[in-house]
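Why does residue order matter? Because the sequence determines the fold. Keep that principle in mind as you read this record.
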Amino acid sequence: MTHTFTKIGITIACVLLGAGRVCALDVTLTNIDGSIGGGELVGLSPTSITWKTDGDTTTTSIEDLASISFHGKRSEPASDQPCVLYFVSGGHVSGTIAEPMRDGMKLEARVGDQMQILFASLKSITIKQNDWPTEARVRFNEAVDHPITGEDILLAKSEKAAGGVRAIRGTLLELGPSGGEFRFNNRTRRIKLNRIYAVILAAPATPARPQPSTIRLMNGDEFAGTLVSVEEDTITFMTGLNQSISCKVGELQSLTINNGRIVFLDTLSPHSHSSKGIVHVGWPFRTNRNVFNQPMRMDAVAFERGIGVHARSEILYRLDGEYETFAATIGLDDAVRPAGSVRFKILADDRDIYDSTLITGSDRAKPINVSVKGATWMTLIVETADGADIADWANWGAARLIKPKAQS
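Structure:
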């Protein structure tokens, strides 16, 4: 499937705050090492943020942050939006299809002006997700996780198909307010919008370029791109689709910085790993899940990223002196608490650099921040702590290595 690409500008009408503050707005800053700070927002630029707490003003470099949360007035719940469009560059936007256009569509979006969206910029299009049957959700997730090169997938309603959903491979040619055209089996067929669950667009020929940050608005829409400027009251954000968004800080929910200094352990392959239990033969470690392959949770907080293990475990990573800090949140998984008791240790080369001492299922999860500066190797160890290894499901939550700042 071949599509073209254009540059589009859109403007979002929002609440403004710039160098001259016009309203009180609190922010929460998450630093790259996991520590939290913030206060009343004073100023924001593409390179730094300034806030005030108890009369003291602080400025932090964007390079030192993982995310900024803005605590403004929440938007009213959105009215029913027929479509959600998911972008190749990241993020999504809700709205109503206004009319078809060549290789794309015009969308009446929740964010403001009518948007011109090319199929080439999309991963998928969903129609009225709130009334989908289970089979449609399963088929959609499978198709999004495994897009096909050169072919689109249409998920359509079908009384004859299993689960009431039929998946058709072909090419999306047109999509408008009532329907469009989809070509398959060497024929172009008309399709009705009210008979469609989703269209999953063909896998792009080249992967999307990673974007420096992701902006999420109070209304739920999300865009990946770059914070460009803050002039007077206006913040300008250039999306990965080359769309210029101008908005007020009060309409922002969060700004997530895809910080190049942070390397999550789930993206690295260990040099070696081992697990040897007392009453079990050993459990493999899990990435982004607990050791029993369930969602990772500690203190009722979900961790989307991290390493799940069972005592006793040992994982060795090669660092080659590239990193400055190792940070994580450690503890027993909620699935076994208050049972379990372990001891977390970290070695840098052959040196002991961290020892948690006893941690039980009754203890709260613990953020750690450990220097690994100059280390060639890092070993993460979880020991048993009470002579047994029952319910020792241990988590290295949000485990990440942090690179030093680039020298100017």
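Confidence is low (pLDDT under 50) at residues 1-23.
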